[in-house]
Structure to design on (322 residues):
């Protein structure tokens, strides 16, 4: 039977912690009752340097349910993506499959069962995808949609409307832990693992209590990080623009020469306008070229795994099967 670990990053979540713990314990008991997960499955709360009573509450829950509720205390606040990574990597050594979910229960815990079913069906990563964004403000909805579109244009593969509510098998977390980059954008990294994936759909609710820990500033930082950590396309765009302007300067040359010959120009205009076009284009092109190399250095320093071997058929294995 597979042991499930539910990983919950928490930053100043004293208002929702007990509610979350109760709801998630309910989910575990239900799944254990149905024989879908092991009896010793657990919830792992990661305290991301909260300044309120979050950690005390986690300790209380652990004291009340020593095997069911576990905790990790980070020394300081490192942000959602790192807190979640710390939780996943800690949990992977204690269980066979993980589910990550926010503490505020905006994501529907009821679909965890469906995720487990898909895991048993052979998926290593199952994305929780929200159906609609009814509960979000107009502003959050439009900015989020624009973000996915821009990501897509920049060639970053992400699952539309999926945040960090996700099932990952032990081996998926293990492979993920080989990605040693510090500019983390988890949802962009999952498709890189290459394993079989699927999605489950749910309606995202309002926060149970407390306020969003993702103000506009953090959201913009996440979006910018997402694009700049996964794509060197902006550099190619600059280079393309440089090429275009150099090409256009040749058209400008023809135009300027005709104007010059027909005598409609102020002395000095022709040489000036040509220099402006040509040099401007040349500079952009050169910056783009330098950028291409920087882009390559960037990709190299990440030292991402180059491949992920899922299975090898060896001679011994074949004999075993005979
Ligand atoms: N969170 C965290 N560290 C932070 C900010 C947020 O661990 O620095 C956690 C937070 O406790 C919650 C999850 O990340 O469990 C998502 O945050 P929130 O619900 O505030 O974001 P929103 O749903 O508003 O985008
Ligand atoms: Mg939330």
């Amino acid at each position: 039977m597979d042991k499930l670990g539910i990983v919950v990053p928490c930053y100043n979540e004293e208002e929702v912690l007990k509610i979350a713990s109760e709801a998630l314990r309910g989910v575990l008991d239900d799944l254990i009752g149905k024989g879908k997960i092991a009896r010793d499955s657990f919830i792992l709360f990661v305290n991301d340097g909260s300044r309120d009573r979050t950690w005390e509450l986690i300790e209380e829950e652990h004291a009340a349910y020593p095997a069911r509720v576990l905790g990790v205390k980070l020394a300081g606040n490192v942000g959602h993506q790192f807190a979640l990574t710390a939780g996943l990597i800690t949990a992977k050594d204690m269980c066979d499959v993980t589910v990550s979910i926010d503490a505020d229960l905006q994501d529907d815990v009821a679909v965890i069962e469906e995720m487990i079913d898909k895991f048993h069906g052979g998926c290593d990563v199952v994305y929780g995808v929200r159906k609609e964004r009814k509960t979000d403000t107009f502003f959050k909805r439009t900015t989020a949609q624009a973000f996915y579109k821009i990501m897509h244009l920049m060639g970053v593969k992400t699952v539309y409307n999926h945040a960090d509510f996700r099932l990952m098998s032990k081996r998926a977390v293990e492979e993920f832990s080989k990605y040693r980059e510090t500019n983390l954008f988890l949802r962009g990294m999952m498709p890189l693992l290459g394993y079989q994936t699927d999605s489950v759909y749910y309606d995202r609710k309002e926060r149970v209590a407390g306020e969003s820990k993702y103000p506009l500033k953090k959201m913009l930082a996440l979006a910018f990080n997402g694009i700049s950590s996964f794509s060197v396309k902006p550099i190619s765009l600059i280079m393309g623009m440089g090429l275009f302007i150099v090409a256009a300067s040749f058209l400008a040359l023809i135009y300027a020469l005709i104007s010059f010959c027909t005598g409609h120009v102020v002395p000095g205009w022709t040489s000036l306008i040509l220099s402006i076009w040509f040099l401007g284009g040349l500079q952009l092109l050169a910056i783009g070229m330098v950028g291409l190399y920087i882009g390559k250095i960037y990709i190299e320093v990440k030292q991402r795994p180059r491949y992920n071997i899922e299975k090898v058929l060896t001679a011994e294995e074949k004999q075993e099967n005979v």
